[in-house]
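Z., the sequence and structure:
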Amino acid sequence: MPHVFITLLLTLAGRVLVSAHSFVSNININGLSYDGFRPTEPDAHPIAIGWSTTAFDQGYVNQTGYRTEEIVCHRGAMNAKGHAPISVGGVVHLQWNGWPGSHKGPVLDYLAPCGKSCETVDKNYLRFFKINHVGLVDGSEVPGFWGSDQLIANNNSWMVEIPQQIQPGFYVLRTEIIALHNASNEIGAQNYPQCINLQVTGDGTNVPSGFLGSELYDPEDPSMHLDISGGVSSYKIPGPAPIAGVETVALSHPLPTGSGTPLTGTDTGTAPTSAPTVTSRNTAK
């Protein structure tokens, strides 16, 4: 009987690991940790900087949602009630709540200006421009080494720099992993978008043109329909090209030294101007 019980527990645990994917639990900026939305405890942090969702299964959006509001900031997304300050050139450190190694694919980052407030903006009118992406890094061994593998190796975390040229204001940072392990199926691509409210400070002057969330991806894009299990030698990362003049941060895992207090409304905060060293863009095929 004990063996049966243990086997049952292992089976159930396996099912949990298969069904539970992930989310951004914390956002670290200038040494301070801010709360993201955690579907495992949705009411624990009412004033967070991460948008809430109804993806309580920690699941995904597939090609059936690419032309809907689901792809903007995930299923049932609602505005975060706070935001965090950051200066241009600053780095956002995004801590995911784990990531399954089998779910390989690109990692992408976008910004969209909110106007007067990201806490009240209509997500359907946000226009996103891409500031970073990493796709297939090395295809020499099946099924390849991807942006998602870099994220896993960095303690399941990601880093993205706010471009120096960006005009100050309120922005939604949209970070996303696209899992391709089932992309050989008709609607097998799995998108995991997460949205974060930021207030960018600095002396930049550029607000790049962008795309509505429902315009970012084509459901028929070959980059969403492929079989990586047999190996791929090249990969065109979905979505628009990154804006000119952006760089990919060399990944590291700095530990926060304290908790950040989200700002609300049109409150302003002081954002340090120092930023981690950046390197040239990672090779992404």
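Residues 2-19 form the longest helix (18 residues). Residues 1-19, 269-285 have pLDDT under 50 and may be disordered.

Let me know what you think.
H.
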